[in-house]
Amino acid sequence: MSASGLKTGQPPVEQARSGAFKLTWRLLLIGIGALVLLLSVTRFFTGAVDLTSAGAINAAVALAVPIGLAGLGGLWSERAGVVNIGLEGMMILGTWAGAWGAIQFANPWMGVLAGAIGGAAGGLLHAVATVTFGVDHIISGVAITILGGGITEFLSKVTFAEMPGGGDTQSPPVPKPQVVSLPGIGEPLAELESQRWFLISDLAGILRGLTTNVSLFTILAVLLVPLTFYVLWRTAFGLRLRSCGERPVAAESLGVNVYTYKYAAVVISGALAGLGGAFLSLVASSAYREGQTGGRGFIGLAAMIFGNWRPGGLAGGALLFGYTDGLQLRRGGESVHALLLLVAILIAAVAVYQLVRQQRTQAAIITGSAAVIVFAIFALTDSVPGQFTSVTPHITTLLVLSLAAQRLRMPAADGLPYRKGQAK
Amino acid sequence: MLHNRFGRLAATALAGTMLMGAAACGGSEEPTTTASPGDAATSAAPGGTGPKVGLAYDIGGRGDQSFNDAAAAGLDKAKAELGLAEAKELEAGNGETDAAKEERLRLLAQGGYNPIIAVGFAYSGPLKKVATEFPEVKFAIVDDEAATGPNISNLVFAEHEGSFLVGVAAALKSEKNHVGFVGGVEVPLIKKFEAGFAAGAKAVKSDIKVDVKYLTQPPDFAGFADPAKGKTAAEGMFDAGADVVYHAAGGSGGGVFEAAKAANGKAIGVDSDQAKTAAADLQGVIMTSMLKKVDVAVFDFLKNAAAGAPKAGTTVYDLKAGGVDYSTTGGQVDDIKAKIDEYKQKVISGEITVPKEVG
């Protein structure tokens, strides 16, 4: 994760590519619309109803939130120039602290707060190590991940093991944050969904998944994405923070206290990862359990890179991972098999685009044959074996990442050591 | 520059502390006893004349309310009835290497503990290695047949027979003719559960639909400790029309129970009587549990060892030997108990042979 491989010679300014591609609301809505249409077509022809069912969408959001929160944490830290591979450790601290706070004060929101504080403590340690003492960011991050597992193991032995219903590796059940639904639309939407009409039922399923049985914590987590964007890109504080990640020497020459900003960024980063952990123990399940993060911190980091160090991009990456993970967990063989058709359609569309708009015949032929191969696999099989379905989210993310990787640009000074008063 | 030198020194100190902290917390290598309250008698029973017993737990250790706790119960019973001289319990850490497991077993053997029991198939490789180094020490391993030797006893269970019974129960209780199975990790051991469950369900209703999902694939063992994934998988089954879901997913099972509650469905627990140990508001959805009586096996082995004659090689604790069974806590299967017991007798008498592998 050094900056060297990704320097493309472009000036490290955000506007560099704006001439080539600018994401507007209109474009975004068209994109979402096309995606829903594509899902609907696939659902209609394959009969894999789970692709757009309310349950799948609900599961997708629930699985995406912890990844997205970890990714947001990574974003804050890396935008200030500190690589945070300790997100997993901070998340683990968050799972324990979230459950402990909720049980101790018999209030789920105290758990949310405690989770953030637990993660922030991990972030503070990372900041002390990397900013004050100049420890290599990767080494400190790995140490924090190991430390997070060890500390929580010890802490649950002295806390949860003493509580009725708890044990060395798990907490008693925790009080959960309230679950809300948009009143009055759940029933009609469910009715529409069950009709299996083209597009209408799919839209109903997606809407119902997004509006019923949503935890208040989920809503909070979703709101943190635009909030992060606003703070980092629309305030002076955010501009200064990002300048520390792009060119700390320049920031320093303009009077920005780089250390303070890096500290703030890394502590907030830890708090967000801690929230992700608390979500796991408070909403996604109803107790702390050792090892329940299962590498989600690292996936969050990948989602952030996939999202080009931008909040919208990382939210998209987390949702993609959450959605495919939800699909494969719920009705793996059938849904993942249907996704093959979707992939074939997508690749075929790319081939047509290459042929018609770009006049790249050779590339179009290669892409076209890839589409035919995927379609052939789809047509010749009935279902995807379990050994493959469980890696669907990883493969999907990897594919999209490798396609998008050519255009990624990390903050210019990300991961580089910085000492106050250094020459360059 | 003083500042820089101080910085480097402090950084080194910090990194060192971090590593030591991690080492101290991560492994339980030191021969200290675990801190849980039930352990008061860990190295007690002074004056006992029986053997010094060493017990190495898998991840979770005493207090996991499942597999390891069952082994601990067997040990506790042995302590009370056999007058053990001393019992030492060590616990595996999450994600540790085989070398760490070897070291743990070696530590026990060198400390003069004999016999030594390793709980869980994860000890297979390490146990085999250590057993050859200490030919005079008697070893036992729970759930594994691969580690063999003249001084190794393999205590294995006929999980497929127990799963067969709960499969029968699930099919009898299913109104939609559709049941589900959530496995933690797709390893041969867990596939035995699936095979037995499916066979049991189909023995009652040959056309019943059985959904199967494994949460992760080896070597990723996160599927045994991820309730969020267990919940999502079970929700998918309930949404697809299943009304009874059986899990063999360790710690992820809590998520299965939650999903069952939300969907007004039923769930079946595993290994221990989970209707007694699950969260209070979830106990009602657990209609029965497949019992795997690790305590019986551990006590049996210790009794033989105390008498000086532990049997090397494989001992299968099946339905006939009382090694597996189903639970009746909550009274939800009382109405079909006679039917289940009928199948139980057929399995014991050999009239029905339960498949070990998914057919």
TrEMBL record, chain A:
PANTHER family reported for this sequence: GUANOSINE ABC TRANSPORTER PERMEASE PROTEIN NUPQ, SUGAR ABC TRANSPORTER INTEGRAL MEMBRANE PROTEIN-RELATED
Keyword Ribosomal protein among UniProt keywords: no
Protein name listed in UniProt: ABC transporter permease
Assigned keywords, A-Z: Cell membrane, Membrane, Transmembrane, Transmembrane helix
Gene Ontology MF term list: transmembrane transporter activity
Subcellular location(s) of the protein: Cell membrane
Species this protein is from: Planobispora longispora
One of the record's GO cellular component terms: plasma membrane
Membrane topology summary: Multi-pass membrane protein
Main location group: membrane
Record keyword Membrane present: yes
InterPro entries: ABC_transp_permease
Record-linked Pfam families: BPD_transp_2
Chain ranges passing through the membrane: 27-45, 51-75, 82-103, 109-135, 214-233, 263-285, 297-323, 335-356, 363-381
From TrEMBL, chain B:
Main localization category: membrane
Pfam short name (any one): Bmp
Keyword field: Cell membrane, Lipoprotein, Membrane, Signal
Location of the ABC transporter substrate-binding protein PnrA-like domain: 58-356
Disordered: region residues: 25-47
InterPro entries with a match to the protein in the record: BMP_lipoprotein, PnrA-like
GO cellular component terms, semicolon-separated: plasma membrane
Signal sequence annotation: 1-24
Name of the protein in its database record: BMP family ABC transporter substrate-binding protein
Gene: bmpA_1
